[in-house]
Structure formats: structure tokens, C-alpha cells
User: Fold these one by one.
Assistant:
Number 1:
Amino acid sequence: MPPTEHPIHSSEDLQQIVDDVYARAARDLGKGKVATYIPALARVPIERFGMAVATNDGYFASAGDAATPFAIQSVSKVFVLMLAMRLRGASLWNRVGREPSGNPFNSLVQLEYEKGIPRNPLINAGAHIATDCVTAGHADPKQTILDEMRRLAGNDAIDFDPEVAASERATGHRNAAIANFLKANGNLESAVDDMLDVYFHQCSIAMTCEDLARAAGFLANRGVDPRTGVRIATERKARRINALMATCGLYDAVGSFAFHVGIPAKSGVGGGMMAVVPGDMAIAVWSPGLDRQGNSYVGVRALEIFVNAIGRSVF
């Protein structure tokens, strides 16, 4: 592993780097477009921007709107995937693949061509499979997911955003079409409405960048929460989740992100992004202006600047 460009020996060192990255990335604020197909997200000011970093050594830094909650949307797919892997083990992969889709996150075309087996668990169709596993495997799946997020972030105040959940349901016709197609192909165990209710709620979970950076810590630390020392996932599962984020986490922009940034990451249409430098740190950024692929314009820029500043990537 190459040496860091700016060594991090304390939270003060890290804060200096984060402050510089924030200032440089903020020059692009206002670029992109806020998601409008979910009305509750359309009202979020495009000028919002937060960033937080938590290292395995216990250093922490944040900047901007890092303490402002936002709906994590598809970033939730990573954590629900972890729960599904915990429940189903290797049998999960009989129902969902592990290959990049090369298509938009909510595409129906590929799902039909491949007869109801989603390409990977980080597109909507594949995330429905993971959510279905949790829905079928727990008496109160929404509470199970919420409890896990609170535990990982160390924040019992984390909750669903009821306005976002209702907005998701009112406009979630494509998700309903995907779920019904999965059901028609025998690849959905739960009732469609039951699974969708859980899915819309998991996407509505409101967290801050500070929460999200802490929650992702186990993925940067071989499956162990660096704050508590508690094993959240086996090292092998953590490695596989990181691999899926690296190859599938930004949908049809994943190749460009790997080329320019080079770390595992997952985005959401709320403008949130979660990324990890395996063995080192977890990063969360949030800015709701989206690029053409549905990823945070400023968030992608901030991660690129940050990785260049610390001289680390997985490549």
C-alpha cells in the first residue's frame, strides 16, 4: 500500500484534510439536479453539503452539514444486504447475481431478459430480494432494520422519515412493477405489498453523515465495528459487500467512479454516498444535486479529492 500523501496521526490531522476537501468540493455546489420523482426529496435545498470521516484508529472529522439528517435511500441497500446474508448465507445467491448491471438502477429490461433473477443486490430489483429475505425472516422487519442502523451508528434517535416513506409509496409504481415481476417469476417469498412497505421505509431512514460514517465502520475494519470491537459480519462477508459496492454501487457510473476515485462506495438519490477505504476508514458525504447517473455531483467530487489527498485506493 503506498504511503499517504497527508499522514493522519490525529483527529486534528484528519480535520485539516476534510476541511480542505470540503472547501474545494463546495465550489461545485449548485451543479446537478435534485431528485424530483420523489416529491419529499425535491424540496431539499441543492446547496446542502456535509462530509464525515471515521478511521479505524478512532479519529473522526466532519464538515458542513454533516450533522443534518437526510433520507439515505439506496445506501440502505448495503445494510439490508448484510442482514439478508446473515439470514440466508450462500443460498441468497441462487436468487440474485453479483455482476454489474450497466443499466439504470430501476431498469426492468434486464430483469425480464434474465427471467426474474436480478443482476446484483444493489440495483432496485436485487435490493427487493434482500428486503424480501428480511421481511420473510423477521416478525417486525422494519424495526429489525432500524435497530441495526441505530446500533451501527451508535445513535438511538435514528428513525424513519414518515413523509419520505409516504412519498415513496405514492410514487413507487416502477418499484411495484419490479416486485410484481419478481413475484410472477417465483422469486419473491413475501406478499408484494408487505415487501414494498419495508423497502420504502428502509429507504426513508434519516441519518446524518456522522451517523453513516460510523455505521460503515465495520466494512472498513474486516467486519468488526472499530468503535465497539463487536463483530458485525465475518471478514469474508465484509470483503464481499465491499466488492459489490466497488463493482455495482454506483450503477452505470461504476466504471468511471472506479477510474477516478477507486474505493468501494454506495450512492442514493437523496444525495448521500457512503464509501470505505478497506483497512483504514469510512467516509460519508451528502449533497442532493445529482449528476446524470443519479449520483451526488458534489459527493463524487469530494470523494475524488479526498482519495487523492490521502493517496489511498483499492487499486
Number 2:
Amino acid sequence: MTNADLLARSLAAVWHPCTQMKRHETLPLVPIARGAGVWLYDFNGKRYLDAVSSWWVNLFGHCNPRINAAITDQLGKLEHVMLAGFTHEPVVALSERLAQLAPAGLGHCFYASDGASATEIALKMSAHYWRNQGKPQKTSFISLQNSYHGETLGALSVTDVALFRDAYGALLKQNATVTSPDWRNAGAGESAEDFALRCSSQLEAHLQQHHDSIAAFIIEPLVQGAAGMAMYHPVYLQRARQLCDQYEVHLIADEIAVGMGRTGTMFACEQASPLSLALSPKGRGNENSGTLPSPAGGRGAGGEGRGITPDFLLISKGISGGYLPLSVVMTTDEIYQVFYADEVARGFLHSHSYTGNPLACRAALATLDIFAQDDVLNTNYSKAAYFNRIAAPLREYHKVRNFRNTGMIWAFEVESPHVDFAQRCFALALQQELLLRPMGNTVYFMPPYVIGEEEMQMLVERTLGIVEALT
């Protein structure tokens, strides 16, 4: 196989996701033959540092030997059995492990294959809960401006991305949005915390007026990914939990992209605890500042006193280490019991053929084993601190704006005269052995956790060169 052979066959047979295929007349697809650690290799042996974790899913490197071994072992036992009327050890073990790690009270797991499906499940489950409770009018939802929760029709109804809204708006149920606490929009002299509190006042006003018809508020905790890695202060999560309780509205925490240690804690919701907030600087998230949670915040332990507990917690992407499609909706016993009845119509009516696939569950269990055995969260804390130190030349470059960091996510905007900045940056990065995928003028890094110091230095130095070339 050669690069040219694979490119020709792919263009003839494959319709690639979220892609204007005509662009590949001038911007060739990148053929990948194999992966190892943070690196991807084409058929000629050229390598690319996967600085975006292959769409935010790969945590512990490509072809990780421990995850490989777990899947290989499972292949010899059970590849799949339907989860309706049957069960198996990997799905039970994974559910038990997640209940130990997640915020307190989330003891029930419902499985799907991808993030959008998890969003669909949470929306349906919330509305069905209220129907079972005798409040069938509670069928609408609210989300943040610039939010992203997936691209199926239900998920798109709570996704505020103009491109999707304009293309498919006629097919969608219209739901409301409230102001995002993204600190880039704070007023002059206003801290990230103060801005988050100001935004929460609008949420309160909306709930006060419309709570009778609202089933749930869905939110990406701490970082709104598709909004250009918009970061905000965790006090907003704390206020959202309080307000949802006050107005009897479910809180859905979409941790599809930000869970599994990506924000510095196993789940981003953990950082909304009073202890974590007390340890954070008041201007948390402001330009040129790191936003690492303190080790004293209890990273990764699970249980009581750990941040807020949403009514629904959505997990996907990194849960299987980037190996196999898997998503989980975790919820409380109180919600579970409302569906527990003799009537079939009161049960939750959702399924798909590969729910709780044993191979995907084994990959997830191996991923959780690596977290525990390698003390990943503490190691990431040190790695992020190192990265912030060596990133000073990039952060201080005169055309870079809003350099920001939460956990193992970094982002910044670039002032550039090029209207096609993202495409140019992507192409130049490939020439420099980097896989970057800018969103507009926002460049971000979300590397696998196994990235080393030498690779971090390469990423910073070569990205700075690319930014200089484009400004």
C-alpha cells in the first residue's frame, strides 16, 4: 500500500465527516498507516504529532499495549451480546467502577456508542421523567450560547453552532440559550468569577420565567469545545446546580469531551466544590494564567464532597482510550426509580444493537486501570505546569490573544490577515510534523496524556513558527 493508492481509494469511496469534499481537490487527505504513542505515521514513514488526540479521544497513545491486551483477551471470551435481557461481566464491572469515580449519587449507567447518542438519551430520559411525574408540559431545554452537544436532531436542538442551525434548523425543535460565561467576553477589569456570576443571573431570570416548561439545562462543564475552547470559572456550575434545584429543572453535565481527566480532575464537575473554589485564584481563567486545579482539590478520588452532582452525567470520547465507540449516561437512583414500574410505557424506551459492547467496556476498564496504576491525574498536573512554563514565548507573542489553559487543554486566538487561517495553519502544521485542527482563528492543543517533555517543546516551538508565518 502507498499513500497515493489509499488517497485515491478513499476519495472514490468514503464520504468524510463534517467535510466539504471538494476541498480535497487542493488539500489532500492525510493517509495514516499506523500509530504509536503520540505519533501517527503515513505509508512513507512520515510522522505527525497528534496534538488533538484524534478528535479528543486518545488518552494514552495509539496502540497502547495494555489496552491492546485487554481487548485481545476479551476477543477470546465474548465479542458481543445484546444487553436487553442479558448482561456480562465487563459492563457490570465498568458500571461499578464509574459509580465509584463519578460525583456522589450517580449509581446507574445507561450505555450507547457515541456522544450525540448520550445527549439524545439524557434529553429523552429527562422529558420522560417529568411525564412519569405528571408534568408532561416540561419538554423544552436550555443550553449555553455557542454550545455543542452533538449532531443528531435532538442533540442539534441544544447545539448553538450557526453552521448546523442554518442547515438543519427547519428539522429541529427550537430551544432557548442563555449567555455563556466564557471569560473572553468579560468586561474590562471584570474577573472570570465575577463574569460567571453575572451570567448566572441571566440563567436565574430565564428559569424563574420558564421553569414550568423546562425539563433540563444542558451544559459543557468548564470548557465549551466547539466554541473555540471557551473556558469559564467553576462558580457558574455551582450556581447552575443551585438554580436547577430551586426551579425543579434537571442539570445535564455533558462531559463527553471534558471528562476522563481532561480538565485536571477526573470529571470537570468536581471543580465546583467549595474547597476547589476556595483554592482557585479569583481571576481563574484570565489571560496568561494557568487554571490547574490544586492537588488539594481531591483530584480523581470520587465520592462525597466532590463538587456538584448533576442529574445526568454524559461520558464518551476518552472513556475507551480512543479505541472503540462507547458512551455512558450516568444518573441518580431518584430518577431511576421513577421509571421502575409494571407498565412498559413508564420504562425508558431507548436502545441500540451494540449497547454495552463487551469489547468497548474492556477497553474502558483498561483505560481506568491506567489512570489508577500510573497516577495519571497527578502526573498530568506536573506535565501541564511544565507546558505552561515552556509555552511562554508562544503566550507572549504579540499576535496571540487570550492564551488559556484548563487541565490538559490549551487554546489561544491568532490575529492573522488570512481569512482561511484554519486551513493554512492545518497545512503548515502537517509540514512541521504536527496535527493541529484550528477552529477559525483559535488554535488549541489537546494532546494524549503520554506526551513527553521533548514532544511538548517541539509542539510549542513549531507552533510558534507557524503562527509567525501566518501573521
